[in-house]
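Can't paste images in this forum, so I'm doing it all in text. The chain is below; anyone willing to post the predicted structure tokens underneath?
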Amino acid sequence: MSEHETLINLVERHDRDHGVREVRIELPFGVIAGKWWGPDNVRPILCLHGWQDNAGTFDTLIPLLPKHMSFLAIDLPGHGYSSRIPHGLSYQSMSVLSLLLAVMAEYGWKKVSLLGHSMGSVLYYVFAAIFPDKVDLLISLDAIKPQIYPVEFIIGRLIDATEQFMVADLRNQEKSEPPCYTYEEMIDRLHKATFKSISPETCPYLLHRNIKRSAKFPEKYYFTRDSRLKHFSGPPFSREVNLDLANRLNMPFLFIKATRSSYFEDKKYYDEVVEILKTNNPYFELYMVEGTHHVHLTNPERVAPIITKFLSKYWSKDEDVASKL
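Text version of the structure:
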């Protein structure tokens, strides 16, 4: 057995050892895929990954969290095993709001508990602020809100992203196979593309749901995520909107920031939101941990105790869940 096949089997064995079940949620545009951890009869904490990542980002963290709780990590459209959106359309951040409501409706949840990383945290910030009565707790990893950028950056980004999106969309329609690499090259590319945030040892957990064997070169693989995602933009909110959203976040809220990770914006915008949360939300908690942007994946032992302590205070089993759980 080759080294890459051993690594692939490692991820599959990891899922079997932890009783992970693949989930498929049928929606009008296609399927939302996910990984369910824990008891079937407990409403899970809904986990949402970062930009161009997938549900595998939580593979090393969830096994360290309480076993009597459940977790459902989903792949957003175009990521992991979930369906892509139709040709000719671009990915829009705010469409995730209706997607989350659809997942809640699928299982009959009146409330939802949220755990997000990076882009997932940003989208959860918006969702929880818009629907605070639907969210009973929120955990964010290394990103807290939509970033604020200079006007000239936003305009330039829109011009470039729109043009590049058209190129990516045409490539999708041609159904040609993307560039392919050996598994070892895949690990190296992912490691370097994240500025070494993801360690080579943990790259397989993300690659597992993000690659496919080449039909042309059987010893090589290609990335399966939708290349249109490269030209995705987050919520284009103003500073004022971000502040108003912060004032609406009244649920238990845990934010864990990595020490060796960027704020992705001028830190003053981050600081003022954190100050509002500290002042107005008695259930807001902020922790700093040593590590990179993917510290929850590469060093989950630094993050898990903080999350476990938070959940021990604010999580309770939902007795009013749909029978289909």
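The radius of gyration is 19 Å. The mean pLDDT is 93.
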